[in-house]
Amino acid sequence: MLQKTPRGGRIETVPAMTGRDTRLDVFRALCLLTIFINHVPGQYLEYLTHKNFGFSDSAEAFVLISGLAVGAAYAGRFVAGARLALTLKIWRRALTLYVAHIMTSIVTLAIFAGGALYFGRQDLIGEINIRPIVDQAEQGIVAMVLLGHQLGYNNILSMYAVLFLMLPGLLWLNAASPRLLFAFSAAFWLAAGWFKLVPYNFLDEGYWFLNPWSWQFLFVIGIISMTHVRRGGRLPRNPWLIGLSAAYLTLSAFWVMFSWWSLDVSFGLPAVLTGFDKTFLSLTRLLHVLALAYLLAIVPVFSRLTRLENNHPLVMIGRHSLAVFIFGTILAMAGQVLLFVTGKNPLIGSLFVLIGIGLHFVYAYYLEWLKEVGSAKPLRAAA
Question: Which tens digits make up the pLDDT trace of 91-104?
Fold first, then answer.
C-alpha cells in the first residue's frame, strides 16, 4: 500500500506502515526478559545485561518503546469526534495498570511474608521497603493503595499508569503541533529535575523512585518519533550523528565498566543535566537510551533481525507485555526470597533465572492459546 506525501512542492510515494510492527514486540520482549533478570539481583546473568555497559537500563528502553507503541496505536486516531471515546479508553487502560500495580504489590507482600513464616526468616520483612507497611499496617495499606508507598522492584506500573492519565493531553498537544508537545515535555522534564518536582511518599520520608514528571519526556519522544514515521518521515542517516551516538555509547560503557563515578563533570550545572540519577532521568541516561535506540533503528541488520513472524516466541512475549510483566515481577519476587534464604547463592539464583526465562515463553504461549480459543468460540457458534 502506498501513500502520497507532499514534500518540497513535489509529490512522493512512500510505503505506508500497516499492520503490527513485530520489531517493537521483539524489543519489548527483550526488555521484559532483561527486567526480570535484573529484578533477581545477586546471580550471574545479571552481569550480562546492558545496564553494566552504559548509563541507562531496560526501564528506559521499555518506556521509550511504550511511547513508540502508543504513538502507533493512538496518535493517528486522536482526531476531532473521536477524542472523548479514545480518552475514556486510555483512562481505562490507566486503571488497568493501577490495578495491576496494586495486585503485584499485594502478591509481593504475600511472597515475602510467606517466606518469613515458612523459613523462619523474619529479616525478610526488612527487604524491599516492606517494613514500614508491617510496622504501620493501617497507614501502610492506605498509603499503598493511594500510591503513597511503593515496594522495591514494584514501581514501574504506577509510573506508567500516571503517564496514561496524562496521555490524552499529550496526544492533544501532539495533534496541534509535535514541536509544541516536545517543548512542553522538555520544559516539564527540566523543571522536575531542577526543582525536584516529584510525587512524595507519605508513609515514610522520600519520593517515587521513578518520577513520572521526568519520565514523561522519554515517553513523549517515543510518541513524537512514531508520529513522524507514520506521517511518512524518516530518521536522518547522518554520519556525524551515527558517529556521535556510537562514541557516546562507547564512552558510557567505559565509564560504567571502569567505575569513573568519582569524576566531577557537573561544571556547576544542575544534576538533571550532568548527573546519573534514575529518578529524575538525568540527561546522561536520556541521551544513552536515545543513542542506543537510534543506532538500533538506523542500522539495517537490527531491523532485519527483529522482523519476525507473528508466531515467534519473542513476538508473543512482546504482544502480551502487561500480563508477561506481571508474571515476571511475581516470579522475580519469589526468586529474591529463594536467594535470600539460600544465602544469596549465585548458582541457585542463575538456575532460577534460566528456568524463569523459559517460563516466560511458556506463559506467552499459554496466553496466545487462550486468545485463539476465545476467537474460535464465536466461529463455532456461528457455524
Answer: 999 999 999 999 99
- In three-state secondary structure terms, 81 is coil
Cα–Cα distance, 268 to 265 (Å, whole number): 9
158 contact partners, CB below 8 Å, separation of at least 6: 97, 98, 101, 147, 150, 208, 210
CA pair distance 134, 203, nearest whole angstrom:
11
pLDDT digits (tens, 9 = 90+) for 174-215: 999 999 999 999 999 999 999 999 999 988 889 999 999 999
Look-up: residue for cell 551515527? 242
**114/117 Cα distance (integer angstroms):** 5
Q: List Cβ neighbours of 16 (8 Å cut-off, separation of 6 or more).
A: 1, 2, 3
Alpha helices, DSSP H only, in the chain?
A: 22-38, 58-73, 83-119, 131-135, 137-145, 156-176, 178-194, 212-230, 239-257, 271-274, 283-298, 300-306, 313-319, 321-341, 346-382
Crossing angle for the helix pair 58-73 and 212-230, to the nearest 10 degrees: 50
Sign of CA dihedral 186, 275, 70, 96: negative
**Identity of the residue numbered 295:** L
pLDDT score of 221 more than 70: yes
Distance CA 336, CA 142 (A): 25
Question: Is residue 180 within 8 Å of 173, Cβ to Cβ?
Answer: yes
Q: How far apart are CA 355 and CA 153, in angstroms?
A: 20
48, with CB counted inside 10 A (0-12, 13-18, 19+), is: exposed
pTM listed for this prediction: 0.91
CA 364/CA 187 separation, integer angstroms = 39
d(CA 328, CA 38): 11
| Beta-carbon contacts of residue 277 (< 8 Å; ≥ 6 apart) | 193, 271, 285
**Residue (of 39, 61, 65, 64) closest to 50 by Cα position:** 61
- Calculate the alpha carbon distances from 239 to 61, 92, 245, 247, 304 in Å: 23, 43, 10, 12, 21
